[in-house]
Structures are given as structure tokens and as C-alpha cells.
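Researcher: Structure for this, please.
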Amino acid sequence: MHMFRLLRALVFLPLVWSASAMSASPIIIAHRGASAERPEHTLMAYRLAIAEGADFIEPDLVSTRDGQLVARHENEIGSTTDVASRPEFAARKTRKTIEGTEVTGWFTEDFTLSELKTLKARERLPQLRPGNARFDGMEGIPTFEEVLRLARDAGKARGRPIGVYPETKHPSYFRSIGLPLEEALLKSLAAHDLNQRESPVFIQSFEVGNLRRLRAKTSVRLVQLMASDGGPADQPGSTYAEMARPAGLKAIASYADAIGVEKAMLFPRQADGLPGAPTSLVADAHKAGLSVHVWTFRPENYFLPPDMRKGTDPAARGDAVKEIKAFMAIGIDGIFSDSVVDAVAAKAEVDP
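Model: Predicted structure, C-alpha cell format:
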């Protein structure tokens, strides 16, 4: 998901949840792994999230130059790897326009998989998560295949299914440069027998066109992501606010099974930073037959409303459990959390 909107078998066992069942016991989605405790989108982050009780692990997917899917929050990797310190790749630094925004850095689509595999991952928010920085350089960039194998093997070892919740990042952009994400994603899922509706998989996107394209090719559950501002990059003039209204939700239900919404769409922040009264979005979505998954719960004071902070240090941990419980009380169906421990604790208190 867009992290800086606040900053700016026994291979798999089948899982089936209805919206009503999930409301009572929402699924826990490890947002990029246990990213409050390990550098995001690393195998160590995914492993820890599984050990802490996550139901799903979430890889954001981008493409390499040779069409391989890897897990990175963005295709620009200057802040999440050591590429900037690698003289052999200095000439790869460039400027591109991604979804209308000028971005300067190093991009996965300019590297082969073998080249990317020489890089090391690092913490993207060291100021807020200095403890994570001690793991810098310990692991590289995982492929989607590696994430799928990790989930499969962890599920077998633990006797419970570990789901995968991939996001297609900038799908229109990647298709425009001849590196479409959807076909590679579906091929990988099929290779692991994860291409049925009951498979423990959700595919998410902030765009609309690629979800419609996926719907025509797979019965795997799809999730329309929405933010409190802006709109789909592939639908100029359309806004997420419009899509969140009853008519918009009805349209979404024609191609998706759930919505993945920013927290502020359910509890808008007031001028003092405190959450206001809840909106009707959860009820409206359920009425349209859509489940509601919410992003993103984070434990640091910086991300929490004033009444849930502890002390004044932005990097200190506040009361994320309290925040998650407030959202659970209005019937959400899924929790995207950087801290799986907090999500598990909140769920245990609400649904012991």
C-alpha cells in the first residue's frame, strides 16, 4: 500500500470466509511482513509475521527487466536496497514518470533478476524504526516464487494455511512498457495450485482495469484498494470517494470481492487529529456483498491519533491495540498491520 499517504496442498488448506463470519473474526494481513520489526518485503519479515500469527502475508509485486515478479513496495528501490552504494549500477540512476509523478532513482524494470539478486535489502524508515536497521544487508530481494514457497512450507509445518495477498503495483505502467504483471502473477499462482476461488489468496490493486482483466481470467478473490483522496491511475476523473458511495460499491462488486480502504475512510480525522464518528462505508460495502479490509495499522506514535500515543517520541510505540479494536467494533473483515502482534492481541481481546 502507499505507506507515505500518512508520511506522504498440504500445500495450502482451503480457506473460505463470508463477510458476516469475517466481521466477527477479521483476518490478519501482515503488511509487507512484520514490517514494524524487520525490513519490509524480506523473507525474514514474512517468516516473523507467520510466527506471530498472521493469516496472510502481503507482497507488493513489481517486475524485473526479464519479466520476473519481485516483492518491493515500489519499482524505485533506492531507499529499500543498497543499490545507491553500488558503483557498478551508478549509471542506472534515472528519472521516470510513474502515474503522473516524476521519480528519480533506480527501478526494478531496468535490472535483470540476477542483477537484483546481488542487492541487499534495507529498512526504509530508519528514523522511525531504527531497530529494523540492524538487519540491513542481511537479506536480498525475494521473488514472488520465494514468497509462495515460504507460505506453502510454513503452512505445512504449522498445520494451518498461510495465505498470500499480493498487490499489483503500477499495473498500467508496467503493461505500457511491455512487462504486464497480471499474466506472470496468475502463472505463479497456478503453478502452486492457488488459482481457485477457495484458495487462500486475495489479489489487490488501486487500479480498476487490471482487476477487471484479472476477473476475466481467474476466480481468485480480488480486492479494490481505495484511499481517502485521489482516484485510480487508470481512470482519470474518477475518485475513490465516488467509488465508496453505494452506486460505486455496487459497480465494484461486479468485478471484486472486497475493498481495501484507508483508515480515514472509516474514521475521518478531525481538526484536532482525533478520529471522528464512523462513516457508513462498512455497512454500505457489506450491503453490496463486499468485505472490508482496512489499511494500515502501525504501532508508532507518528501514525496514531493523539489519544493513543504514549509519550512524545514519534518513533515510540503507542496503543495500536486500542486503535485496531475501535475498527473491529464497526465490523471490518480484515486488518492490514505492520505489527502482527498488535493485531493478534486486539483480536484476542475482542474475540477471545
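Researcher: Any notable elements?
Model: The longest helix spans residues 144-158. Confidence is low (pLDDT under 50) at residues 1-23.
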